[in-house]
Amino acid sequence: MEVSTPSAGSLRALRRLVRALRLADRAAESRLGLSAAQLFVLERLSEGPVGSMAELAGRTLTDASSVSVVVQRLADRGLVVRAVAPDDARRTTLRLSAAGKRLLSAAPKSPQVDLIEALEHLSAHERKELERLLERVVRFMGIDDAEPTPMFFESEPSVTRSRRRVRPAGARARSRG
After folding, report:
1. What value, to the nearest 5°, has the Cα angle with vertex 130 and ends 129 and 134?
2. End-to-end C-alpha distance for the chain, whole angstroms
3. What is the pLDDT of residues 16-65, one digit of tens each?
4. Segment 106-165, tens digit of pLDDT
5. Where are the alpha helices (DSSP H) in the chain?
């Protein structure tokens, strides 16, 4: 099947985007020992302490369970401090540790920050249209029921990684390109 020029251009743009995210993740890993997702969480925590995982999830534009996994890894490394909320002993607050601040001061900007800034240059209408079109692509690919990755390039639990997508009966394998 020959790819039409408009499709080829979209595919090239998506490849550049995914490649930039992947390379930034590798660079963060080799330079800092962190995933790009962990760097992004540190950046969002540098905006100030948060009073809940839900608040941090809002800052990172993901869900609380996904950001919780990342925070646990950062806390294990001593980069994030968890403390009991002064106004409610049932709640935990999160903030950067001194080590987290030092690491962040020497770190490059995460690719997620660049992506969000780029998206914010679009009008509200353009962002909504982009979302609608990407959702259509996902549906046409048959992956609309698949869970999104927790955060870009953050390791998923091994159970999720080992699962394979089951193709509907009669669906042909597509080349990866």
Report:
1. 120
2. 12
3. 998 988 898 898 889 999 988 999 999 999 999 999 889 999 999 988 88
4. 898 888 898 999 999 999 999 999 999 999 998 998 887 767 666 665 654 433 333 344
5. 5-32, 36-45, 53-60, 64-76, 98-105, 111-120, 124-141, 158-162
Q: Residue 45, class by beta-carbon neighbours within 10 Å (0-12 exposed, 13-18 middle, 19+ buried)?
A: buried
The structural domains of the chain, ordered by start, are: 27-160 (1.10.10.10)
Q: What tens digit of pLDDT does each residue of 61-87 get?
A: 988 888 999 999 999 999 999 988 888
Which run of H or E residues covers position 89? strand 88-96
DSSP string, 12-24: HHHHHHHHHHHHH
How is residue 62 written in tokens? 């993901």
Q: Residue 83's beta-bridge partner residues?
A: 93
Residue-wise burial string across 56-80, b where 16 or more C-beta atoms lie within 10 A, e elsewhere? bbebbebeeebbebbbebbeeeebb
Q: Which two tokens stand for residue 177?
A: 């390109």
Write phi, then psi, for 7 (nearest 5 degrees). Answer: -65, -40
Q: Look up residue 173 and give its two tokens.
A: 């394998």
